[in-house]
Amino acid sequence: MSVDDSDVDDEGLLTFDSNIDFTFSEDFDKLIADTNNVELPDFDGDVALDFALNYSKTNYNYSLNTAFSFGGGFSDKIWTMSNDEMNVNNSFSYNLGDLSLTTSMSLVSQMLNNMEDSLLTSSFLSPGNISWSLGLQYSFDKWLKGSFEFNFASVDFIVFVNQSIYDILDVELLNEVERGKYYYTLVGVDLSYSLRKKLGKNINISNSGKLFFPGQGKMLSEEWLNYFKVQVTNEISYSIDAVRLSLQTRLSYNNYLERSLNIYNKLAIGLTLF
Questions:
Q1: Which of 41, 46, 158, 221 allows an S-S link to 75, with CB 3.0 to 4.6 Å?
Q2: CA 151, 198, 235, 89 torsion: positive or negative?
Q3: Per-residue pLDDT tens for 20-65?
Q4: Predicted structure pTM score
Q5: Which residues make beta-bridge pairs with 192?
Q6: Which helix (DSSP H) or strand (DSSP E) does residue 168 occupy?
Q7: What is the pLDDT of residue 170?
């Protein structure tokens, strides 16, 4: 929402939004899973909390988007975690006319420890993904609102902070990060887009996506899929005052964090907090 005059200076505009979504059932599928068969919970649910801050001035714009989600379910009376993610994204853009020069930094990680067969296998920033990019963005606001972005400089850091997991699993390499090295670096380019459409007063449709193409000769290697990343999200929502019903589908592939191609289908009811 747009805040009042006390939050806006003579030349800038500050906005802040926050939403909380409750999912009571989730259809969670894994495709091409090299991690073998995944048993789905009999009952599944999660909570997602989103914050968005945006500051705009004459020629530049800054935005901070933070999302937390956590969920799981019971299968044969055993609790199984199906969703644990923190996603933080900062971006700054400077208006050059029809295009904008933009730079962004993001962080993706789970929040809690993950146990398998009573062994710690992953934890906060273990693994995690920190990325930085610099590029050009084209935005439009006609019958359809959105943007296209090409980042000609993109750096991906795959981090693994918790070194004790190497000892627990007795391995020297986890998620491409060697023991004692803490991170693995990939350099490349990426493309992203965002499309939004409002139908009437209550219905919103959105589609967004991002693709990362590795450099350093990785695209020419036989294992190029290990370095390629993609995420596409579709959402349709219906809102009445502060209450929102939404249907979301997300496809993602990040070999370092998920080791598989994932498709999430989620029906949620939520509240707009601010």
A1: 41
A2: positive
A3: 998 865 444 444 344 444 455 555 778 999 999 999 998 999 999 9
A4: 0.84
A5: 149, 210
A6: helix 164-169
A7: 97
Q: Is residue 258 classed exposed, middle or buried when 0-12, 13-18 and 19+ CB atoms within 10 A define those classes?
A: middle
Residue 29: partners with Cβ closer than 8 Å, 6 or more residues away: 262, 263, 264, 265
Burial class of residue 185, CB neighbours in 10 A (0-12, 13-18, 19+) = exposed
The rounded Cα 51 to chain-centroid distance in angstroms is: 13
- List C-alpha distances in Å: 89 to 105, 210, 246: 6, 13, 22
Give the span between the Cα atoms of 52 and 15, in whole angstroms: 8
Cα Rg, the chain, nearest whole Å = 20
Q: Which residues of the chain have pLDDT under 70?
A: 1-11, 24-43, 74-77, 216-225, 257-259
Domain count, the chain: 1
Element (H, E) at 243: strand 243-254
CATH number at residue 188: 2.40.160.40
- Domain housing 22: 5-272
Q: State how far the alpha carbon of 236 is from the alpha carbons of 79, 163, 266, in Å.
A: 30, 41, 11
Residues facing 61 on adjacent strands:
56, 93
The pair of structure tokens assigned to 72 is: 């799981």
d(CA 123, CA 159): 11
Q: What is the DSSP letter of 242?
A: T
* Cα 134 to Cα 142: distance, rounded to the nearest angstrom: 26
